[in-house]
Structure formats: C-alpha cells, structure tokens
Design goal:
Blueprint: E1 2-11, E2 14-22, E3 28-32, E4 38-44, E5 50-52, H1 60-66, E6 73-74, E7 80-81, E8 85-88, E9 91-94, E10 103-104, E11 117-122, E12 126-135, E13 146-155, E14 159-168, E15 172-173, E16 177-178, E17 181-182, E18 196-199, E19 201-207, E20 213-219, E21 231-232, H2 235-238, H3 242-246, E22 252-257, E23 265-268, E24 274-280, E25 284-288, E26 298-299, E27 303-304, E28 311-316, E29 331-332, E30 338-348
Antiparallel strand pairs: 1-2, 2-3, 3-4, 4-5, 6-16, 7-10, 8-9, 11-12, 12-13, 13-14, 14-30, 15-29, 17-28, 18-21, 18-23, 19-20, 19-22, 22-25, 23-24, 24-30, 25-28, 26-27
Pathway: Carbohydrate metabolism; hexose metabolism
InterPro entries: Ald1_epimerase_CS (IPR018052), Aldose_1-epimerase (IPR015443), Aldose_1/G6P_1-epimerase (IPR008183), Gal_mutarotase_sf_dom (IPR011013), Galactose_mutarotase-like (IPR047215), GH-type_carb-bd (IPR014718)
GO molecular function: aldose 1-epimerase activity; carbohydrate binding
C-alpha cells in the first residue's frame, strides 16, 4: 500500500489536495480533501486491464461549477427535505431550497463543498484516509455543533469501506451518504443500461412530482423495480410504470433493504466482467441512474455528459425521514453517536 498526494488548486485561499491510494493488486483510488470527493477509482477487468470506473473531473474548478455531487460525501442530510423545513422538539427549522421547493443534500454549501481535515494511515494490507470536519451550529440551518469523521479504508482485497461517525452538542438530524457515480464498463466507454443490478429489496418509496417520498411503500413485485433476482438497468427507462416516468425515465428511488443477506446489492457488467458488491448497515439505498445528467462539460477529461452514464448507490436512512415519523429516525441527540458502514467489493467474473 502506498499513499501519495499533490495540490490540485485553491478555494477561498485554502489549498485543495488530491490523495491517491494504490494497492498491491493495481486498485487505485484518488480523492480530494474537498468534499471527501472520490475522483478516480481504477480496478482491473476480466483481462486484467486497469480502467477508471467512476465519474469525475480533472480540476477543482469543474467540481465547483458543474458537479452533480460526483464522488462526494453529502449531508448533513442526504437527499431531499420537503420544503426545506422540519420541526424538532417544537422548534421550526428552515433551510435553503436548493432543489426547486425542496432542500437537497445539505444545502447550498453542504459537506460536499467544504474542505475536510485529512490524516493518512498505512498498515500491512490496508490504507486509511481519515477525514474530520467540525460543522458549526446553524450551518446551512441545521442545529448543533456536529463533529464528523469519515474514514475511507482501502484493502488489498480490492475493497473500499466507508464509515461515518458523528456526535453533537445539541439535538439535531444527521444522515450521510456517498454520491459516487459508478460505470463498470471502464473509462465510461458505454452507458450503464446493460449493467445487471441486484438489490435485496421487496419495497421502494413512492415519490411525488417533486421526487419527495409520499410516505407510501410500494411493492416491487411485477414491476421494473424488482431487482431481487437481478435485471438490466435498461428496464427502468423502457418501463411505463408511472414512478419510472416521473423520475425522468429511470430510477431516483429509495429501496428499503430487507437486511436478510449480504451483500445487499450487486452490480455486474458483462462487457468488462467487473462486478461490485455492496454490504451496509443502512436500512435503504437510493438508486439513481443519472437520468438528469446533462450539460456542456466533459467528464474524466474527454467524456461528454449524457443520461444513464452511471449509477449511484446511496446507502442511507430514508430521505425526508424527519417529516415521516414512521421512517427510521435521523435524529441524533447529545451523548449519542451516529455510525454508518458500507463496504464496496470489486471483483471480476
């Protein structure tokens, strides 16, 4: 294992540094101290060819100007909060409406847009990038001074483990996730429509026209949302299901994980032979198939933005949970510790 670093730019007078971790089997991950952003993830295909399997940019300016949360840690609350408001212990809180009438991924300057402190650690068969950030009381409208810790652990078994810890000095809400866009074809040479996806989930959350959970759980049975035995991602864009159409002819939905088996999620690319298996202690995963990915910018230096270029697997608690008492709670009280764990295992078939 080795870790190298280099300055890639400045923001607000502070340096932004890229850290690259390389394992003995060729797997390489590069990320920034800005937003804990994973900018590049290189793994072998079935022939041993090393290629990048995530979407990102070559410079910090593009992340600031164009990024749809590529590779970042998002929060304090991942996903949307309806009308940017919630009530906690009888007090009303109002946040930025940065996604139509709703609050999205922590606001105008969420955790994806701050520079984290970073320490590195190398052991025999693994390396760690340890990010910490002190989020002050009132930041983006959230209560409490919150101490946050994100750890990326890269192993020689071609695994990435992401762990989040959080504590607060006042009751608040917290629900973090990583927003990496995966494309297992390698170097985004094709879309993810022919990727096969398997999710251990019997139900998904119904969304309204603003992509907010209505509170209803819908059965996956007999729909393009049934990934229990694996299906092509292309089935979503081709589906006439109102929920697929509403999301822009694809998926942008929270799936409730059965939590009966691990890995809970598996993605396969027949073209490259690459597979991705996901284990998590979280109750849900938001599947987003980049239905809205478009813009006049280049990804990874030479790839034009287009729909269905990648998929996100955002392991988390249910979006807008603070406004749905029957959803798993995202409330964090003083003296409690928030903890989230997700492991990504990269293999070939």
């Amino acid at each position: 294992m080795e870790i190298t670093k280099k300055k890639i730019g400045e923001l607000g007078g502070s340096e932004v540094t890229a850290y690259t971790v390389k394992g003995k089997n060729g797997m390489t991950m590069t990320c920034l101290d800005y937003g804990c952003i994973i900018t590049e993830f290189i793994v072998p295909d079935r022939e041993g060819k090393l290629e990048n399997i995530v979407l990102g940019f070559d410079n910090i300016e593009d992340y600031v100007e164009h990024s749809p949360y590529f590779g970042a840690v998002v929060g304090r609350i991942a996903g949307r909060i309806k009308e940017g408001r919630f009530t906690l212990d009888g007090k009303d809180y109002h946040m930025a409406k940065n996604n139509g009438e709703n609050h999205l991924h922590g606001g105008e300057r969420g955790l994806d847009k701050v520079i984290w402190n970073l320490e590195t650690k190398i052991e025999t068969d693994k390396a760690q990038l340890i990010f910490t950030y002190e989020s002050p009381d009132g930041e983006e409208g959230y209560p409490g001074n919150v101490s946050l810790r994100t750890v990326y652990t890269i192993t020689d078994q071609n695994e990435l483990v992401i762990e989040y810890n959080g504590t607060t000095d006042k009751k608040t809400i917290l629900n973090l996730t990583n927003h990496t866009y995966f494309n297992l074809s390698g170097n985004a040479k094709s879309t993810i429509l022919e990727h096969t996806l398997q999710i251990d989930s019997d139900k998904f959350l119904e969304l309204d026209s603003g992509l907010m959970p209505t509170g209803r759980l819908l059965d996956v049975e007999g729909t393009a949302f049934d990934f229990r035995n694996g299906r092509k991602v292309a089935d979503g864009p081709a589906s006439s299901h109102p929920q697929n159409i509403l999301a822009g002819k694809g998926y942008d939905h929270p799936f409730v994980l059965n939590r009966k088996k691990q890995p809970a999620i598996k993605v396969s690319c027949e073209e490259s032979g690459r597979t991705l298996e996901v284990e998590t202690n979280q109750p849900a995963v938001v599947l987003y198939t980049s239905n809205q990915l478009e813009g006049d910018f280049l990804i990874n230096g030479n790839v034009k933005a287009e729909r269905y270029l990648a998929l996100c697997l955002e392991t988390q608690k249910h979006p807008d949970a603070i406004n749905h008492p029957d959803f798993p709670s995202v409330v964090l009280d003083k003296g409690e510790e928030y903890y989230s764990y997700t492991k990504y295992s990269f293999k070939v078939e």
